[in-house]
Model the fold of this input.
Amino acid sequence: MHEIEEKESVWNRTISRRSFLKKTAIFGAIGGLGIEGFALEPRQVAVTNTDIYISGLPDDFDGFRICQLTDVHHGPLISIRFVEKVIEQANQLKPDAFVLTGDYVSSAPKYIRPVINAFGKLKAPFGTYAVLGNHDHWESEELCVKNFRRNKIALLTNTNAVITKRGSICIAGVGDYMEDTQEPDKAFKGIPYDMPRILLSHHPDYSEEIPKDIRVDLVISGHTHGGQIQIPLLGIAPIIPSKYGQKYINGLVKNSKTQVYVSRGVGMIGIPVRFSCPPEIAILTLKKKDVSFQI
Done:
């Protein structure tokens, strides 16, 4: 009898120990997420560098550096002071041009003017180009347009700009995939087919719907935030706001029509956390590809 009781006691202690270790691991992970995800990582902005190969790129644009900022979400969670520090960091990278791919504000129209004024401090020899995101429409498209104009930033809603050295490239933009229209014929109006083309689209899902007869060498997007929380080592996120799931989580992606760069963005929405998914300033370096372009 005593032997049975002693065995049961040992078993219970073993179960308790396992339960304790399991709970300790769970709470340790939650604690780590709390410290890293809420307090540290959202302010640890990473600079990423990606080479983008484009067929027929003029020699003068081989090495042309584009800096992308997106999904800043200035509002209750993201202070203007933080945004200004990000802009200062981006300026120090000395890119040839800046592109802004939407969702500059969250929660209220009052955040629009300060954040776009901050973007007005971006300095690059070939300018700054922007499109709007869904949050910008929700707060006030009119105020966004007005403030971009005031800061002399080209807002490319279904239109384009041409950057010229000895050769030329086109940067175009479309309206937001959720709240506006996408008119690629207008976006590339007047652009020769053999001119390299970069398209700004806040939402990466639009890249799947580009008409086959329209040349697009690169789509630059944001919107997904990288999921804000990624599983370490696996690089996947529990939630991605895209109908293509993990495909457009972040980074350079190729689909049947073009290549797409998706930035993790600068800000946050929803739960104010980033884990294994730091904010991003993206540097995209154009490289010449010595083959004929094919859709």
Notes: DSSP finds five helices and twelve strands in the chain. Residues 2-40 form the longest helix (39 residues). Residues 210 and 257 are 7 Å apart (CA to CA).
